[in-house]
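User: Teach me something about this protein's shape.
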Amino acid sequence: MRVLAIDASLRNCGVAIVDGENGKSRALFFGTIHNATSVKYSACLVAIRDRLAQLIREHEPDCCALEAVIYVQSYKTAILLGAARGAAILAAAEKGLPIFEYAPRRIKQATVGTGGARKNQVAFMMRALLGLTETPDADSADALAIALTHLRAQEAARLGIPGATQI
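Assistant: First, the predicted structure itself:
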């Protein structure tokens, strides 16, 4: 199974493509879609959607996994995050990919072992678990962690253990 994983954000959207075959996970791609603060909000959404569509064409993932909506104190931040998430979901939905979401604490628990893990701990674990030669930036690491969480949830589902929410 090949997973497109997205840590949605307007300015720094983490993306990963991870292949999980025979119990082994391999990162095929990871990176961050950077949108400068000078770029208009609407142009950022187009850039996110276009880059994800390009990655979907190049890597042909079987599904998409995202971090579930998180609680934020600022309504403006919530709206921007929701819009970025919408652009990401649109890119996957246009290609007919099934889309799954996972709670942030579950992602950290599944990949680091504690739901309260810090960003640097997630990045370190992604490097170790995937045998990467470099430590990914925080946004890429989060996307890699989402992909691994999905692969593990799908394996658990095959064993009859309930898991992800499909959206």
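Now, about its shape. The chain has one domain: 2-166. The first helix runs from residue 41 to 59. If you'd like, I can walk through any region in more detail.
User: That's plenty for now, thanks!
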